Amino acid sequence: MRFFSDNAAPVHPAVLAALGNANTLDTAYDGDALSKSLDARFSELFETEVTALWVPSGTAANCLALAALCPPYGGVVCHRDAHIQNDECGAPEFYTHGAKLMLAEGEGAKLTPATITTLLDSIANDVHRVQPHALSITNATEYGRVYAPAEVAAIGELAKTRGLGLHMDGARFANAVAHLGCSPADVTWRAGVDALSFGFIKNGGMSAEALIFFKRDLAAATLMRRKRAGLLLSKGRYLAAQLLAMLDGDLWLETARAANTGAALLAGAAGERLLHPVEANEVFLRATADEAARLRAKGFDFYDWADGEIRLVTSWDQQPEHILPLADAIATL
Amino acid sequence: MRFFSDNAAPVHPAVLAALGNANTLDTAYDGDALSKSLDARFSELFETEVTALWVPSGTAANCLALAALCPPYGGVVCHRDAHIQNDECGAPEFYTHGAKLMLAEGEGAKLTPATITTLLDSIANDVHRVQPHALSITNATEYGRVYAPAEVAAIGELAKTRGLGLHMDGARFANAVAHLGCSPADVTWRAGVDALSFGFIKNGGMSAEALIFFKRDLAAATLMRRKRAGLLLSKGRYLAAQLLAMLDGDLWLETARAANTGAALLAGAAGERLLHPVEANEVFLRATADEAARLRAKGFDFYDWADGEIRLVTSWDQQPEHILPLADAIATL
Amino acid sequence: MRFFSDNAAPVHPAVLAALGNANTLDTAYDGDALSKSLDARFSELFETEVTALWVPSGTAANCLALAALCPPYGGVVCHRDAHIQNDECGAPEFYTHGAKLMLAEGEGAKLTPATITTLLDSIANDVHRVQPHALSITNATEYGRVYAPAEVAAIGELAKTRGLGLHMDGARFANAVAHLGCSPADVTWRAGVDALSFGFIKNGGMSAEALIFFKRDLAAATLMRRKRAGLLLSKGRYLAAQLLAMLDGDLWLETARAANTGAALLAGAAGERLLHPVEANEVFLRATADEAARLRAKGFDFYDWADGEIRLVTSWDQQPEHILPLADAIATL
Amino acid sequence: MRFFSDNAAPVHPAVLAALGNANTLDTAYDGDALSKSLDARFSELFETEVTALWVPSGTAANCLALAALCPPYGGVVCHRDAHIQNDECGAPEFYTHGAKLMLAEGEGAKLTPATITTLLDSIANDVHRVQPHALSITNATEYGRVYAPAEVAAIGELAKTRGLGLHMDGARFANAVAHLGCSPADVTWRAGVDALSFGFIKNGGMSAEALIFFKRDLAAATLMRRKRAGLLLSKGRYLAAQLLAMLDGDLWLETARAANTGAALLAGAAGERLLHPVEANEVFLRATADEAARLRAKGFDFYDWADGEIRLVTSWDQQPEHILPLADAIATL
């Protein structure tokens, strides 16, 4: 059973079905009816007017957002363990034309106003130092931790005070919202977020993420950048269809809850082994190499995070009956 | 009936079916079994060892290839009417970090050794002028013209003599090969092509093109660039599945032949109106604004190319019965 | 005697002397008293508040200006024969991160509202085409032609109407102003120019040009870009000193008049050979290879412009007695 | 008396005189006799064939070198306190088109094979992580510490083993060599350095640094990049003249020794206050805000490095009589 990454999970049947339903003639690129409906559909979800663009990857969503928020000669503050820093092969630098990621600290890969302020205050305000232009936070974080609305709002307030744009990497935004039980608006624009990478692929989608601009005037340049990056797929209706299928009937929340539930089951079995509180669908455990080997011998696959640490990721399609054998195996290590 | 663009056509049922068949658990990115099989499958097709990467758009394929062939301070020779020059919003400049497109002439958007040489010889060889590093030709061209193997080979020979890389934009490569009836190898690596953007989307695919490196040492850096551009989709198996479905049983040739056949029917009806010989699936006609309006009034949609000129593009899914009404309408204008 | 380029001329003694006078202790970069005086000094000259930055080359001035006026995904309209297109090795693409130069026509390398409009109107306003963001004109042009204030104003009006920034490459701005006899203001900001590359090096300077922002809010980002490009020299006072020495007593006009006078002498001798009206310090002549060889045999050095065409450039330090022998030689060819 | 930065010091009279001597007619850019003599002159100094380019700033030298050693998708390992990381406003990212600086540790801003290895071994070798392509070390470092030949050689060996290029930022290379008393060759190419930014400006020059390629095949692309960056000054002979004047009679060593001597005098007076061993011309001291104020009240200017720390930099033109009053003031704090 695979707990390696939610990227490995299959696509939700509703998403596949939507592709079939979209399989008629329509205009190319994003001129089709499905693509054109995205703004309205996401505006409804977020209870405010937004501009919503499909893109084929989370890296693309993140980096288009950063390019919209930060000039080439600027900097983006993020956590030292952020995906944009460690796992995108320099995509932020490519899309922003060389902006600098400025690394701040924080427990569980969460930034706080205090850790951000410490970093900002260390940067001399002159032409010799790259000056910060934006903040990027990840919700849920790389350690499966979730920012609550008030936490985001505190960062949003700081961003506003310092004149910085605020981006949220929401590759697992659905898991965060499912955990919080709040409106998606509460943890985004109401808390000061300007742009959101809203992930669907890990959560049952196939090849479409949504890039949401709450600060809508950022979108015009981004439409040019999306094309210029080879990201304006010529049959865009098949991406829009995926997103719409995930929104229909709040499927995105349903699948995220399923994945979170699985992680909670594992967390319950892990006891003292837990390295981080489990708030989304990732579980980090202390486990010796020998223990890890024993789990693998039982057919469970997962990621060796660091020395003596393993990462388990649950997916939307894993039912309790898929999870419990691993929970048992952990409990009896 | 839509003759606006082959991008507007639906996806072939075999491609949709392949997505369903791929819908099981596998490794993320391009580590899955389907993605791993691409090199072998395309090597078989091209009768030589190639490296084959899926990418989600033709612009991405083109520009990754150009970045592999040309440094930021170099130039790429292409036709004045090339897609990379006119229709990709500066994507070549983005991916190459500012290389310059150098525009050459040629009938039907085809370059020739003579027109290339004229351009090359006009460039002083000093540090003040951008120096050419690569050639890019399009087969079939923006005007639906096809380079025969000998024509490509003559350009390939020139490229070799001048120390230039050679890229082929094959957004409609299938249509070109279907027209030529040759081996795909004859019009690519055997003729000196280093990298090919092998288009499938216009020809029945959904969201996957293949970037083929005949000069395989170009691929390693490209793997990094693909990731860095946000093009390494996390569920890559669904892109690989599309390409494999198109290769199975030479479906790609079958669909291309269908589109070409439709264009030939239109060409036959067009007589003196034809602006370019019809060799692929595009038909350019002289038509006054009034004539265009009359065609549209009959329900035919198409692109106004230039003053007094219209472009008709046929698609893989259009049978003769879909084409003949337009052919009739043209004949009786 | 050298008529190859005004770049080959020596430095004016007043500039050298100014370096010696600046040779005391002061703050590094541009914090010194001389650098700090530039804004005021150039504001006086231009009769309006400007921001003035020293840079060590005309290419640097041009490309910092273009980067301030055009985003990476945009385009800059310039003449087909512009220095930024042909002689800067892609520096505009480097500084703008891949913006596209869009080439317009015009006699004597001069753009006109008509030629600009023809180009602009050919660009479809969609995300597939690079959209223009700025115009760049050269005064005096590559053919030694001068835009009069009314000509610039007509272009400035067009730029405003179309929402485009306007840059003037003034590598030989001094020669243009000397020819026009107008206020520098008349041919720049009063005519709609946003940024000017004000050349001094060809005109008696050593290694300092001035980048003048009439639209002053463009300067802040440019200060970052200047540093980021390695152009913020650490002993900037020696660059400021050069500029100030050239401004003192209108030395820049005196040297430009001297060069223009030399060119006029040559033009007078050239008669029917003249390819362009001589308005600055460049003279383009019809001359066969044999005639060119005969001039060279007499000790005159110059540039072979094109087949059967030569370019003669006069310099600030050439007195009539240096020019007349060449004038005689031309007259007696 | 100014101990703020050696960038504030005046230019050596021999350099000024050389400008006057160069003030004759010659070819533009780097085609003049002086520029052409640089390769030979620096080859002699380094006892091997090198390619030597003048550039107008240390940032330019550093970043051209890094662009030659690292592709846009790669990384450059440097010290956390390196000038390229902290003081060049993202110039490395600009010149390399977005390569990532990878920060390693080390006492006195010196990298060691151990600290480099720790960093390298933490980087997973896959397409998700930026892969290192080069190392950059600074000699003397930001804390005035000097790498001895054996220390560089150990790093050079590691670089070779790992397939990394090796750059040395030698903004104060002269001070390092003066301290070491070795041949410049010993601490550069004999120890594995591929490219050196050889600083002259802080050491008595005006506006010329030398970029030295020991791995000469890196130079060809760099000539294009230098032009493309606006760094190919049109009257290059005045930069070459400065470098040649500094090399004549080993003036560069003489001036560096003078600056080092001054720093040694201060170090001798500082006793327990010293934060770093003084090996070049920088002295870092513990000093309370009150103590710093008292020194300033006596007319000494310097940089507040960090809380409770000050930085004093001595310059080539400061004689012991200029230094001793500060030494006394420190001793009697």
TL;DR of this structure?
The structure is a homotetramer of 333-residue chains. The first copy, chain A, has 333 residues and is α/β, with parallel strands linked by helices. Chain A has helices at 13-21, 33-36, 38-46, 58-69, 83-86, 91-96, 113-121, 149-162, 173-180, 219-228, 237-247, 251-270, 289-297, 320-331; strands at 51-55, 74-79, 100-104, 131-138, 165-170, 195-198, 209-213, 282-286, 303-306, 309-313.
Written overview of the protein:
4 copies of one chain form a homotetramer. By secondary structure, chain A is of the alpha/beta class. Chain A folds into 2 domains: 14-250, Aspartate Aminotransferase, domain 2 (3-Layer(aba) Sandwich); 252-331, Alpha-Beta Complex (Aspartate Aminotransferase, domain 1), CATH 3.90.1150. The first copy, chain A, has 14 helices and 10 strands. In chain A, a hairpin with a 2-residue loop joins β9 (303-306) and β10 (309-313). In chain A, α9 crosses α12. The model of chain A has no long low-confidence stretch (mean pLDDT 97).
